[in-house]
Amino acid sequence: MLFVFAVIVAALVLFATEALPVDVTAIAVMVALMLAEPVTVLAADVGLLAEPVYVLHQPGDGLSPLDRGLSGFASTATITVLAMFILSDGVQRTGIVQILGAKIASLTGDNETKQLGATVGLVAPISGFINNTAAVAILLPMVTDIAHKGKLSPSKLLLPLSYASMFGGMLTLIGTSTNILASQLSAELIGRPFSMFEFTQLGIIVTIVGTIYLLTVGRYLVPSRIPAEEDLTREFEMGEYLTEVVVREDSPLIGQTVEEALRVSEFDVDIVQLVREKRTFLEPFGQKAIRAGDVFAVRTDRDTLVDLLDVEGLDVIPEVEVDDAELETATERKNLVEVVVAPGSSLIGETLVSTSFRQRYDATVLALRHGQELYRQRMDHVTLRIGDTLLVQATPDSIDRLNRNNDFIVAQEVERPDFRQSKIPVAVGIVAAVVGVAALTPIHIVISALGGALAMVLTGCLRPPELYDAVQWDVIFLLAGVIPLGIALQETGGADLLAELFVMGAGSVLTAGGGLAVVLGLMYIVTALLTNIISNNASVVLMIPVAIETARQLNANAFAFVLAVTFAASTAFMTPVGYQTNLLVYGPGGYRFTDYLKVGAPLQAVFAVATTLGIAYFWGLAPA
């Protein structure tokens, strides 16, 4: 048990500090559990238990440390979540969500209440049936465009988008990976899994409560961090960093290619576009030889520009403002966009240099935003994270490639000719069939979901190679790593010990006349606080065994305590790191860490009350 606690503490520290990606931490946990030997620990050694316990498994259970450590990969929860990613991607590739979003966006105009209502009203129900992270990723461009067209700061809509996706995910079993994982744990520990619509009635209540909060109190608490500008160069405050220069007759750059000039330059400068003989060129133009009279739009700061002019033989073109209109003269289509680093992106932990971003994507990064931090110079070595927003200029073809790349989310609506709109009825029908079969027949959700994933391919909604791109592998490895940790916590007596400590702490509440509902509320709050620091899936794995043992010690309904943990783990409102959707809007919204606490803490408190009362009413707190 001491070994398991040591692994848990190390994992919690790594999850909270993000010293390693969460999936890497989960793999480390898995390896640690597999390497440990089944050593007997006597009560006299630990002073806690009255009988021998084992670090990983009990004699005769038929599972070795190796089997137990790898059990997460064979878990029905892991396989179900994997299948749900594929189903979500199949729906996404039809374009139905974008079509719905466009129709709703056309009705909002510049009315903030309508914009906010449309955002919450669209993402919440969608998140009940497709992965909520995917729902936010799909709708983020639409919401950003609604804000820009309505002269509203995107910050006012993006945080509500994230929050609404979270409480919308509590409408059905398949709304979040956390629900699916909690269902498996509940089945294993108390013999009661969740049905497809097990908690839909409570999910509807918290969705209504959350929507009312966001439209009233939350509306005034959510800050306007990003200027309400349609011009992206103004939004990123590029006025002092974009300039047009002309190559003089005596410039030493003449004859060099653009790529050579950039490579040997000691200055922090990017060439954004080349204008030659009234023609404008965007990347890739690295092999073009520089001529006298060439005009470059460059990204650099004023001090560097002064040195650059003298050394490289350039002159500033006066009275030219390099704005969106100037940068988009090269083509009739949009070539200046915001690009968000997506969850599971291969760029996470890398830099613009290490990824060779300019050469790899034929695109120039003009600025980089992480939360409230805005970089417009010396960006090449900034480590990229989920939700980082890049201001990118590229040709329409390059932007199309970025838009199709799962590493990115283009934060403006871009035409997608590859949407399979003819497959909309098929994809929606497959998801409805998966839900119906799981809800109305004895067939397990994992079989229904895998059958639906197969149907997506057989009907052409997805192509076979797209299956692997559809899955967020970091989430799969996270689940596979933390599930064995929860089993170890349960079987070594660790959950019993933590439950005893929780009951001791709650004892004063019961002594003071507080009932089981108050203790249930405390369980919700403890889980919510933990979830806002570490992964939601890790919180469920650690807290459900504790919740069940707490209920047993208090002679209460264990299923009610499982539901409290499940709802709390899926509604992490108070930090950007508590949930992937919060990270996803962190950069595009320009938020500060404290914004999540200011807006999310009251909402978390409201949900603690609503969820506790709802569970007590629908399921009761007395033992079944």
TrEMBL record:
Coiled coil (UniProt feature): none
Gene Ontology cellular-component annotations: plasma membrane
Gene Ontology process terms (BP): potassium ion transport
Transmembrane segments: 29-50, 70-87, 116-140, 161-182, 202-222, 426-458, 470-489, 501-527, 533-551, 558-579, 599-622
The name this protein goes by in its record: Potassium transporter TrkA
Keyword Transmembrane helix listed: yes
Domain of life: Archaea
Residue ranges occupied by any RCK C-terminal domain in the UniProt entry: 230-314, 322-408
Membrane topology: Multi-pass membrane protein
MF-aspect GO terms: monoatomic cation transmembrane transporter activity
Subcellular location: Membrane
InterPro entries listed in its UniProt record: Cit_transptr-like_dom, DASS-Related_Transporters, Na/sul_symport_CS, RCK_C, RCK_C_sf
Chief localization: membrane
Keywords annotated in UniProt: Membrane, Repeat, Transmembrane, Transmembrane helix, Transport
